[in-house]
Automatic annotation (TrEMBL), chain B:
The species this protein was found in: Cyberlindnera jadinii (strain ATCC 18201 / CBS 1600 / BCRC 20928 / JCM 3617 / NBRC 0987 / NRRL Y-1542)
HAMAP family reported for this sequence: eIF3i (MF_03008)
Any Gene Ontology CC annotation: eukaryotic translation initiation factor 3 complex, eIF3m
Keyword field: Cytoplasm, Initiation factor, Protein biosynthesis, Repeat, WD repeat
Subunit organization: Component of the eukaryotic translation initiation factor 3 (eIF-3) complex.
Localisation: Cytoplasm
Signal peptide: none
Protein's name according to its UniProt entry: Eukaryotic translation initiation factor 3 subunit I
WD-type repeats, residues: 6-47, 48-89, 187-228, 284-314
Function, as annotated: Component of the eukaryotic translation initiation factor 3 (eIF-3) complex, which is involved in protein synthesis of a specialized repertoire of mRNAs and, together with other initiation factors, stimulates binding of mRNA and methionyl-tRNAi to the 40S ribosome. The eIF-3 complex specifically targets and initiates translation of a subset of mRNAs involved in cell proliferation.
InterPro entries: eIF3i, WD40/YVTN_repeat-like_dom_sf, WD40_repeat_CS, WD40_repeat_dom_sf, WD40_rpt
Primary subcellular site in the record, as a coarse category: cytoplasm
Any GO MF annotation of the entry: translation initiation factor activity
GO terms, biological process: formation of cytoplasmic translation initiation complex
Length: 54, 341
């Protein structure tokens, strides 16, 4: 948090970003909590099944 | 990594799409021929020949079995992906501006143009997958542009194929029950034409781009604006990246305005923004004209841009792309990780 002491504008920016991240995380958590209603199927992003073409 | 160039179209690209696995890229242009390419090397696998005019839109089903095109020749065509055979033609009264499969591949939608006594409509059909050459031409729904609304430019299905969300010429977005066609709500989202709509992976929110030089994210349930991205040129397309919390915007000065400006001032770059913090974080150059469409690989490993210049460029993301994080993200992840211990 050294950055927070640099200036008040830098501090405000960090707080704003923290708030935006929390809002987004809450929005996504709410969607995830109602997965069945949304018909969300887990999508895997590991590349285990991926055929690598050289 | 050097981008792959897909060279084959003779006119401006209008839409580009990856299939669900991301091994194929489907492209349409003003040259009347749809194409399919291998995404890993840019080799053209085949073409879909039959339209008599500009093809405005293409979509492929989740099994990569059928694809669908909408054209200025007043028709929408269903094709067999693997053979290039035209299976069926749905004739319309006006140009077809946008086509899409629903998430279950058994319904399709078409956005038809508003011209000369035709109101412009969102039309849905049931797709007969068992005998694809036999289709019922009676629409399931025909949602005509309502009194007080300007024409629809783009539309797509939400999660579960439950709603249809449309973007209008004046920047309004509207939401309909995809079963009854009833208008559920609308909101003025932008000051100019809505040029593109692309949904998140789970289809619970979507991004729209506009000629008003911006793009925004709205949630499906409340039609509430979640994010807004400001650009310095009209935007033609916007995509959401899986894996990373970014969005990619494409656009540029209109062709008629470009002759008066130097090529390097046309702003023909793909622009990356942080989806949560709304800041522009990077640009990728390459096209010699406006970017008309942006598609992101379903696993988030590359993106494809279709240009007014007639080229498709496929860029594979490098390590720095995956590593990029804001300090607050790093802190939040560390905190979450500590909490799990």
């Amino acid at each position: 948090t050294d950055l927070m002491e640099d200036s008040s504008s830098a501090r405000e920016l960090i707080l704003k970003r923290r708030r935006l991240l929390e809002e987004w995380t809450a929005f996504r958590a709410n969607v995830a909590a109602h997965k069945e209603q949304y018909g969300i199927v887990e999508v895997s992003h590991d590349n285990e099944d991926l055929e690598v073409i050289e | 990594m050097r981008p792959i160039m897909l060279k084959g179209h003779e006119r401006s690209l209008t839409q580009v799409k990856y299939n669900k696995e991301g091994d194929l890229i489907f492209t349409v242009a003003k040259d009347k021929i749809a194409s399919v390419w291998y995404s890993y090397n840019g080799e053209r696998v085949g073409t879909y020949n039959g339209h008599q005019g500009t093809i405005w839109s293409i979509d492929v089903d989740s099994k990569s079995e059928f694809c669908l095109t909408g054209s200025a020749d007043f028709s929408m065509k269903l094709w067999e992906v693997s053979t290039g055979r035209c299976l069926f033609t749905f004739d319309q009264d006006t140009s077809v501006r946008r086509v899409e499969f629903d998430p279950y591949d058994n319904r399709i939608l078409a956005v038809t143009d508003k011209v000369m006594g035709f109101p412009g409509s969102i039309i849905t059909y049931k797709i007969n997958r068992d005998s694809p050459t036999q289709q019922d031409t009676t629409p399931l729904l025909k949602i005509d542009t309502k009194e007080g609304f300007e024409k629809v430019s783009v539309a797509g299905f939400s999660y579960l194929g439950k709603y249809i969300v449309a973007g209008h010429q004046d920047g309004t977005i509207s939401k309909y029950d995809a079963t009854t066609g009833a208008l559920i709500g609308s909101v003025k989202a932008h000051e100019g034409l809505i040029t593109d709509i692309q949904f998140s992976e789970d289809k619970t929110y979507f991004i729209i781009s506009s000629k008003d030089k911006s793009a925004s994210i709205y949630d499906v349930d409340n039609l509430k604006q979640l994010k807004r991205f400001e650009a310095d040129a009209p935007m033609n397309s916007a995509a959401i990246t899986p894996v990373k919390e970014f969005v990619v915007l494409g656009g540029g000065q209109e062709a008629r305005d470009v002759t008066t400006t130097a090529a390097n001032q046309g702003k023909f770059e793909a622009r990356f923004y942080h989806k949560i913090f709304e800041d522009e974080i990077g640009r990728v150059k390459g096209h010699f004209g406006p970017l008309n469409y942006i598609a992101v690989h379903p696993s988030g490993s590359s993106y494809a841009s279709g240009g007014e210049d007639g080229y498709v460029r496929v860029h594979t993301f490098e390590k720095s792309y995956y590593d990029f994080k804001y300090d607050v993200e790093v802190t939040a992840e560390a905190k979450a990780h500590a909490g799990e211990q």
